[in-house]
Amino acid sequence: MPLELAQALTASRIADLRARLAPLFAGTTLPVTLEVGSGHGHYLTAYAQAHPERFCIGIDLIPDRLERSARKSTRAGLSNIAWLHADVRLFLEALPDNAHLAEVFILFSDPWPKRRHWKNRVVQSEFLTALATRCAPEARLCFRTDHAPYFSYARDIAAEHPDWRLCSEFEEPWPFELVTVFQQRADSHQSFIARRRAGVPPVSAIEPPSTPASSSE
Fold first, then answer.
1. Residue 23 lies in a domain
2. What domain range includes position 21?
3. What is the pLDDT of residue 201?
4. Domains contained in the chain, number
5. Which residues pair with 42 in a beta bridge?
């Protein structure tokens, strides 16, 4: 795809996301929880039901998953949850300037096991930098995977990142347990939690992405 066309497509997607996000944030003052790659919506629907004091947003790249998720939350009668078809990097770019995330879940995202595909993993240093600029002070990042090499990879990146502080399991236990479809398929899993440090650069420090990146499970 020619560069000019890719940039125009990205700009169009960001504009569309901004138009969809603006009324969501205008209509709530609740702390915002984001799930990246929300799958079939089991986890976030249950989380929103258990935490009416939070506004939850699930993003995924597969429309069918989002439709299933919307049906779940509608059946549950929830008004504190929304689902969006979005790449996470474009989502961060499209957030209103006054919007800040209080909590982010990344659960069983694609581990891209082959080394040449590692660049497609959600957790990268550049992603954590962009995420930090859109998070409130001490916002919580909760990561879980059943792929041990990806766990080590992501944990090392978070541990070395200046904008995030890893928490011990004794300091910060996992906030909400629910066995999802992806977790049911796993023999085991590993998790970590990181907190956003103070002194993170402002929103304007985010560089607009040139092409979308994968964010779904």
1. yes
2. 3-205
3. 61
4. 1
5. none
**Tokens 């976030």 -> residue:** 44
Cα distance between residue 191 and residue 169, in whole Å: 9
Q: Is residue 149 part of a domain?
A: yes
Q: Does residue 211 carry a pLDDT above 50?
A: no
Cβ neighbors of 187 (< 8 A, separation 6 or more) are: 146
Residue type, 100: H
Active-site annotation holds for 110: yes
The answer to whether residue 113 sits within a structural domain is: yes
Q: For residue 185, what is the domain's CATH number?
A: 3.40.50.150
Query: Is 140 within a domain?
Result: yes
Tell me the average pLDDT across 85-89.
96
- Sign of the Cα torsion 185, 56, 206, 66 reads positive
Q: 26: pLDDT confidence band, cut at 50, 70 and 90?
A: confident
Q: What is the mean pLDDT of the chain?
A: 90
Q: Which of 16, 60, 87, 110 is catalytic?
A: 110
Statement: residue 53 has pLDDT above 70:
yes
